[in-house]
Design a protein that fits this description.
The strands form six sheets. Strands 1, 2, 3, 18, 19, 20, 21, 23, 24, 25, 26, 27 and 28 form a 13-stranded mixed beta sheet that branches. An eight-stranded parallel beta barrel has the order 4-5-8-11-12-13-15-17, surrounded by four helices. Strands 6-7 form a two-stranded parallel sheet. The protein folds into two domains: 166 residues, Golgi alpha-mannosidase II (Immunoglobulin-like), CATH 2.60.40.1180; 326 residues, TIM Barrel. Helices cover 21% and strands 25% of the residues. It binds 2-acetamido-2-deoxy-beta-D-glucopyranose (8 copies).
Length: 538
Amino acid sequence: MGFRFWLLGFCFWVCFFFLCCGSVNSEGFLRGRVLIDGKSAIGRIDEDFVCATLDWWPPEKCDYGTCSWGQASLLNLDLGNNILLNAVKEFKPLKLRLGGTLQDKLIYDTEDHREPCIYFSRNASELFGFTQGCLPTNRWDQLNDFFKKGGAKIIFGLNALNGREIAANGCSIGAWNYTNAEMLIRYTVKKNYTIHGWELGNELSGNGVGTRILAEQYASDTIVLQNMVQSIYKDIEPKPLIIAPGGFFDENWYKEFIDKTTPTLDVVTHHIYNLGPGVDEHLVERILDPSYLDGMVDTFNKLHEILKNSPTSAKAWVGESGGAYNSGHNLVTNAFVFSFWYLDQLGMAAAYDTKTYCRQTLIGGNYGLLNTTTFEPNPDYYSALLWHRLMGRNVLTAGFNRTEKIRAYAHCSKQSKGITLLLLNLDGNTTVHAEIAFNRARGLHHKHRSHKHKSNARIPRPHGLEGEAFREEYHLTAKDGNLHSQTVLLNGNILSVNSSGNIPPLEPQHVNSSEPIMVAPFSIVFIHIPNIVLPACR
Ligand SMILES: *[C@@H]1O[C@H](CO)[C@@H](O)[C@H](O)[C@H]1NC(C)=O
Ligand SMILES: *[C@@H]1O[C@H](CO)[C@@H](O)[C@H](O)[C@H]1NC(C)=O
Ligand SMILES: *[C@@H]1O[C@H](CO)[C@@H](O)[C@H](O)[C@H]1NC(C)=O
Ligand SMILES: *[C@@H]1O[C@H](CO)[C@@H](O)[C@H](O)[C@H]1NC(C)=O
Ligand SMILES: *[C@@H]1O[C@H](CO)[C@@H](O)[C@H](O)[C@H]1NC(C)=O
Ligand SMILES: *[C@@H]1O[C@H](CO)[C@@H](O)[C@H](O)[C@H]1NC(C)=O
Ligand SMILES: *[C@@H]1O[C@H](CO)[C@@H](O)[C@H](O)[C@H]1NC(C)=O
Ligand SMILES: *[C@@H]1O[C@H](CO)[C@@H](O)[C@H](O)[C@H]1NC(C)=O
């Protein structure tokens, strides 16, 4: 991730933690430094960066012979489930993006829809393998009631194929028929339901999935949406965001689309499925391979450059990301090992100034944060919650100096003026002892203390004040060391909901700041260091 290059740029390092000089690489043990640039932030995420999706797939959606959606569709999900409500509430707030492939074949049962409201049904000769489906207004009411109770922020993906014809070359032609969407939005406003953003379409950019729409047409439809929203919300606050196109990144298509939607567009969304199809045998290998993970840097970087060099004020979001497409892979994308991929994605996206990251899915498919049948949180749920509670808005450059198998991310802390580090150990044999080093930034200081900095000088470790000499660590490991486990341990204790369906508290362990950070093989560690105050975090 350009880390070595960055490393060369600095001459002076100030170490905070005592370790004997040099580094020893004896059996399964590696000593190194996490290097952090504390001078300025490289990105700034939304307060509610963590987002998850809910999809429309009916129980009949099957991939490679397994049907993994159960009753997890927006049309049939048990909204009365206590764990579900608690899981959403716990984020205060969780962003939820409602959408997916079938959103573009969904009709809303509003006044303009004069036919019976029928569910999706399987038909292999139809686009996406299903007939058109319909959202009953009373279901929309129930959903909004649930979102309100859970305190969720809603992004709704509108049907962008309405009114178009699919040409022989697979391209959708004609303008968007927005009447049905307009009716839904008017109904929503009339009912006082708060929608954080209206998103147009799903995976129709670039080459598209199933069909595609040219950037120029998509831009003009997006402007139509914005005008409509502006007029409907004329006297209504808060105003919703205009979001598009929710597809796969394609440099030329995105560039043209962003040019032509300035200044209409608030958020440009893209989707990520970089690990291959769910059926692939090599998913775990790829998840644990640092150079494979770095394969996404190019996309994040290109989109970041397009936005930086454009007059648009649109921000980048990952609108849907499930890693492995066609519903993921049971015991991989819903197991402990997936937290390496997921947290690495969150860290990398944030470092390229992505504001929000929506995980496919909150529930449904083989990649749910929650188990589709029991609603119990999978390991990634707890990873998401820890990220949400600990990683603050400002993103710092960070890297580990000894091995690519340690992925290091740092943000200003969400809970203090200090910092939070995230370290992922992709190696199954090596325990890492990490010390932390900072570039020599003017104005770097400890709370309650001041220091004169000399190059390569070690700052005396802080002591004297209650609480100051400790940092908070959250170590995540797989139950029985099994990467395919759906049970995760926090500091050695199993995380699970209790019999009332409450999400357990996530308690840190306190570690004396003079100790190096120990990162066990195949483990994930969040480290909150409240007493290190960097210029980028003030
Ligand atoms: C990495 O940091 C350690 C200190 O923990 C140091 O001894 C070692 O020389 C550094 N290695 C590289 C390649 O910079
Ligand atoms: C499936 O869809 C095709 C094309 O729309 C249609 O001709 C056919 O009658 C449908 N089959 C069933 C069983 O509904
Ligand atoms: C657009 O859709 C509405 C139903 O939502 C329909 O009444 C209308 O005729 C359609 N407009 C066009 C131009 O096809
Ligand atoms: C929506 O809010 C307005 C103003 O707060 C109120 O007058 C109206 O009754 C509400 N409508 C519904 C359907 O709750
Ligand atoms: C859900 O949990 C049950 C009980 O732990 C387990 O048997 C099942 O495999 C899980 N389902 C999925 C899709 O992960
Ligand atoms: C650990 O190292 C041994 C010997 O090199 C190797 O056989 C084993 O597969 C490694 N285990 C893991 C989990 O990487
Ligand atoms: C479950 O946890 C919650 C909060 O942690 C607590 O209030 C509740 O009493 C617990 N329920 C049971 C049955 O232990
Ligand atoms: C932290 O560790 C150092 C070195 O072992 C020790 O001198 C100090 O008393 C410890 N601090 C606390 C607060 O326990």
